[in-house]
Amino acid sequence: MSETYVLGDWGTSRLRLYRMHDGDISARLNGPGTGALETGADRVLDERLDVWLAEGPVADVTLCGMAGAPGALVEAGYAPCPANAEDWLASRTRTTVAGVPVAVMPGLSCRSEAGVPEVMRGEETQVFGAIAIHPELAKGKHLLVLPGTHSKWVVLVDGSVAHFSTHPTGELFALLAGQSTLTGPDAPGDGTFDDGFERGLERCEEKLTGALFEARAARMLYGRSKDWSRGYLSGLLIGSETAAQITSGTTITVIGDTALSALYQRALASRDCTVRVLDGDAAVVAGLKLARGKTT
Fold first, then answer.
1. DSSP structure class, residue 212
2. Which InterPro entries match (predicted)?
């Protein structure tokens, strides 16, 4: 018998809800991220569920991401690595909103060989979703990168997340491009974002703090545009991240937003890497469907 249920990815910057019917997306709703809530998370979810409940019953809701962070909807901890899909699914937390059962998936945690702590929330759903879409990822060793505010580099071994590391590249770019003096005013100038990105890749193995200042100096001396400067910062930061994580010729899977994944693909291609790009939305929905199938 067919039923309607809801899957959701609740990040710091936005909430994305998918109403599912017969396994397919029948409607979508967005909302504020957990970092921009003006009311309680339960109230935000309640308001959106009411829209769909007015059209018919909803069997249940499965959420991932920051919905499980302290102070959000309900605290869902971290499954320690190494963790496969079953380990992750076993650590879920349950609550009820608008009379509808809600399962909130945990994040993952690990420590590096040096004892450095690492955590993720939401990206693990994309990882397990990618495995569900591409079962070959469950065999052998694979390197994945999930670009974003806090980019995650994940090592998969036979379908388990063995360990991962984080680069807050997206957050650094937002701060430097939006709140520092490096990109300068919105004055006319020469050069595109792509031009600047290529220049950033050229300098990405230099000392980062020294290389950053070309974003400003090139505007002053060479009349570069603000777009060029933003592209330069992006290329420099993404290039530095990839240089720290891989060697030339590595095979890597990129999971994420189309536009951002394309920038990582360019940076990786410059290092002669073999790259496969998977859509982040498709991966998260597949991961949530996997989770939902095990929670009902």
1. T
2. DGOK, DGOK_C, DGOK_N
Cis peptide before 82 (omega within 30 of 0): yes
**Calpha distance 87→102 (Å, rounded):** 19
Task: Render pLDDT for 63-97 as a digit per residue (tens, 0 to 9).
Answer: 999 999 999 999 999 999 999 999 999 999 999 99
- What's the 3-state SS for 95-158? EEECCEEEEECCEEEEECCCCCEEEECCHHHHHHHHHHHCHHHHCCEEEEEECCCCEEEEEEEC
Give phi and psi for 66, each to the nearest 5. Answer: -75, 0
Q: How many domains does the chain have?
A: 2
My answer on whether 39 and 138 are in the same domain is no
**Contacts with 21 (C-beta within 8 Å, 6 or more apart), sequence order:** 2, 3, 4
Residue 82 lies in a domain: no
Residues 6+ away with beta carbon under 8 Å from 208: 236, 240
Do 153 and 101 lie in one domain? The reply is no
